[in-house]
Design brief:
- By secondary structure, the chain is mainly alpha-helical.
- It has two domains: 2-181 and 293-322, Rossmann fold, CATH 3.40.50; 206-288, Tyrosyl-Transfer RNA Synthetase, CATH 1.10.240.
- Helices cover 56% and strands 7% of the residues.
- It is built from 14 helices and five strands.
- The protein has a three-stranded parallel beta sheet with strand order 1-2-3. The protein has a two-stranded parallel ribbon with strand order 4-5.
- Helix 4 (84-93) crosses helix 8.
- It is globular.
- The two termini are 32 Å apart.
């Protein structure tokens, strides 16, 4: 199966990104043809500082590698290094209605969050994402639930193109993790953990032990002291239970039994210890990679060359079908 997915190089990668996406990629690369992208063109749709973008791209590559992606088992590259992404996005825009783009939930959320930064590219974000997926004849797209709507639109665009111009694209399917697809904010457990929010709301993948301790102990819980999973009535402790379960390998039921009658403070202290130990290998690997900038650039350049071969093959067929010389 061919897999495609990507992460925007905006802000610090946090445990929500890891549990919801990257952790799943590590196992997928063992038995599938995986293409993982640093989607820097997507990063331009929300406020950013140009001087920070290159640093963030390198940092995101380090996250991928430190977390366990193996460039000998997958293709890893930067989106803007393969110009076919932008070209296909433009062409797909000619068969996608304005109404479809305006209905996208993420577009509505982002214009509410950044009313001063409403741009055409933000509206066309799903077209670029569709191009990302369709360029590589993707079978499965591992994403969080918040991106599921975009993949469904991608499937509709693929069907529409194939009907209008002739069969070119596969209809990729969403691959959601069984658990952890949506890790919530530590301060507002009814909204998704986001790296563009207040740093108190997330834990960076390379966070220091002191930061982990401070953020977990200050994490919002719920009335009462019972360690019980109930996302509707107890969203705070339910979110922390999910994080604990995914890092420890223990089921929610096991954790509820283990911490029965022990209260939130005891539970949080155990979670702090678990996270410090679990994230230590990532911190160590990052330190090593920071001194190997040339090595990282070589990986991304080689990945772009491999990705370009597939993308150019698809675009040759697309241009032919659409009547472009």
């Amino acid at each position: 199966m061919r897999i495609f997915s990507g992460i925007r190089p905006t802000g610090e990668i946090h445990i929500g990104n890891y549990l919801g996406a990257i952790k799943n990629w590590i196992s997928l690369q063992e038995k599938n043809e995986c293409i993982f992208c640093i989607v820097d063109l997507h990063a331009l749709t929300t406020p950013y500082k140009p001087k920070d973008l290159e640093k963030n791209i390198t940092e995101t590559a380090i996250v991928y590698l430190a977390a366990g992606l193996d460039p000998t088992k997958c293709i890893l590259f930067v989106q803007s290094d393969v110009k076919e992404h932008a070209e296909l996005a433009w062409l797909l825009g000619t068969i996608t209605s304005l109404g479809e783009l305006k209905r996208m939930t993420q577009f509505k959320e982002k214009i509410r969050k950044h009313p001063e930064y409403i741009n055409a590219s933000l509206l066309n974000y799903p077209l670029l994402m569709a191009a990302d997926i369709l360029l590589y004849q993707t079978d499965l797209v591992p994403v969080g639930k918040d991106q599921q709507q975009h993949v469904e639109l991608t499937r509709e665009i693929a069907r529409r193109f194939n009907r209008k111009f002739g069969k070119v694209f596969k209809e990729a399917k969403v691959l959601l993790p069984k658990m952890g697809a949506r890790i919530m904010s530590l301060q507002d457990p009814r909204k998704k953990m986001s790296k563009t929010d207040d740093p108190k709301e997330y834990i960076e993948l390379f966070a220091k032990p002191t930061e982990i301790r401070k953020k977990i102990m200050a994490a919002v819980t719920d009335p009462g002291k019972e360690i019980k999973y109930n996302p509707t009535k107890k969203p705070g402790i339910s979110n922390l239970l999910t994080i604990f379960s995914l890092f420890s390998g223990k089921s929610i039921k096991e954790l509820e039994k283990e911490f029965k009658g022990k209260g939130y403070e005891r539970f949080k202290k155990s979670l702090v210890k678990l996270l410090i130990n679990s994230l230590e290998p990532f911190r160590r690997k990052r330190k090593e990679l920071l001194s190997r900038e040339v090595y990282i650039k070589e990986i991304l350049q080689k990945g772009a060359r491999r990705a370009r071969i597939i993308a150019q093959s698809t675009m040759q067929e697309v241009r032919k079908k659409m009547g472009l010389i």
